Each structure stands twice: as C-alpha cells, then as structure tokens.
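Translate sequence into structure tokens.
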Amino acid sequence: MFDFDALEQSEASAQLVTFSQADSGDPFTEGLNFPVGSLLKSVAPVRMRAETSLDSRLVCTIQPGQIAEVQACSGRRLFIVCGGQEGWVSAIALDATILWQQENGNSWDQTEDLRQTLRVRPFREVDRPFLQRIEAQCFGLRDQSLHLWLMEAAAPGSRTCVDVAVVDTAVAGYCAWRLEGDLHSPVLYVLSLAVEATQRRRGYAEELLRHAIKRGESSGAAAATLHVRVDNKPANSLYSRLGFVLVAHVHDYYGNCDAWELLRELPAMVKRTVDHTLVLKLRAEGFPQICVIRMLQWTHNSEAMAALLAAGEVPIVDCQDVMRQGGRALGSSCRI
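Result follows.
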C-alpha cells in the first residue's frame, strides 16, 4: 500500500525550490516540464490539498489514471483541476517516486497547435444556426438572448458586436459584447461567452474574450465588466485568470441564482470621472469616499450603482483589497 504519511512527512522536511521550465536545478524535478495548461495523468495515488501547506485541508485522493490540468505551480507543488475538484498536489515525491506523466494525445504542444488554427471574426448570417445550437447547448432552449443581440449588432451605428470563433471551417463559439455608458469613456460589457461542448478546454473562450477586450481598448473603453453565475467555476476561473476582479454580489440576478459582477480595468480607466454630487451624498451617509469613487468608476451606470449602495442592495467593497488580491476568491478551474 502506498504510504501517504511517509511521503508527506518527507516532503514537509524538504526545502521547496523554484519549479519552472527554464530552471529546474532540483534533481528530483530535472526533466519535468509541466507548464500551465498542460494535461497530466496520475500514475500513483496523490493527495490533493486546499493550500500549498501539507497541513491544509485534504480535498480528495486522486487515484492512478485520472487526468488533471495544471493551473499553477510553486516549488514541488502543482495547483490542478481534476475530476471537478481543484487544489494543490505534489509534482514528484522526495524519494523520486513519479506521481504524474504528460498525457499522450493531449499535450500542451498539441493544444497550442489547435489554438493556432483559431480565427475570431465578426458574425455572418451563415453562422446563425451554429450559434443558436451553441446557445441552446450552453444556456437552454428557452434562452433567446442571442437573437436580440444579433438584431442590435445589425443596426446602423450599433455598439453591440457578436464575434465568432472559427476553427478551420467549423464554428466553435461566440462572444457577444456591447460598449455602454459615456461616449468619451465607455465600458465594455460582455453579454455572453459560449463555446461548443466538444471544443472546450482548448483556449477558445480566452481568445474570444481577449479579442473583445482588445476591441474595447481600441475604442477607449475604461473597463471590461460582466456578470457570471456564482456557481460557474469554469467561467469564474477564466475571468480571474484574465485579470477580472470581484466588484459586487448581485442577489437573484439569474432568477434562481446569484451573480458576481466582475471588472477588469483598461487603460482609459484613469481618465474616467464620476459625479461628485453622488460621492458627497454617499459620503454623508457614512460610506468611505475612496471606495465609493472606485465603485462608481467601475460601473456603467453611476446613478443606479449609487442608489443600490444607498439601499444596501450592493455591499461596499474595499477596493484596495480587491485590486491587491487580483480576484483570488473567484476559483480556478476552467472547462470553457
């Protein structure tokens, strides 16, 4: 039987070293190359823990043969997603017992090759049936939001856009977004992001979102913002990885589910001003001025945000802590 306790005690007494592709001076990690995004297969039982510390809470025990995706690494420890669970595991035992191997047929290099075939372009009418199928697959047959966004995007002078991800000749996903708010400093609001089920975990959602953000930046958008279900860990992971931070917890946003309001600042944010009348009013009611200013900057509707703050519908956020933590509370698995 595999001796977990002996393994973890030996690990605890070992000095953690920097683990990277460029420098793996540790003889036990020599030759290992587990970059972020690579897929691994466990070849021995491995304990997954909530934190890097070996004293932290045990999440689960991963059995041999299970597939995991690397999200981050620190010393001999890997942060992975495996079987719907996420946490820290050992990359290799101190006694050189091999715990993981690169998954053949799904290597990082092959994933990169797939990503290189991706093209993001504006919606064309021939894409409609494919996008409708993806929408129904991801959000249910009753959701008809995509139809409205396509109508908006087709209108002259529209600030709504639907981008399509195409792999070779197949439609793999879409991103609908809109520029909202002040014309001199708009906010890019991501309406919807969806990838066809068989095309997920290949970086397509990330490329779609990056493309939208780049378009927003070129239009002078101050920030990119969106709403996401609080229980959608894959999407939350993607947004966190791309620099989105938690702004507010919106109750019953989806009817039967709460939402996070997330935001990523863009270069034009520093030029965005707020209505100081609203700031003074909220300050008089006891709200901290700096947090109020930041939250009003982050929203595309300052008056609505001020009203929600005053009514207690949206909690005031310690903006400095949010920015310092970088959205760490959002989770880290990704299947989009």
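Note: Residues 204-218 form the longest helix (15 residues).
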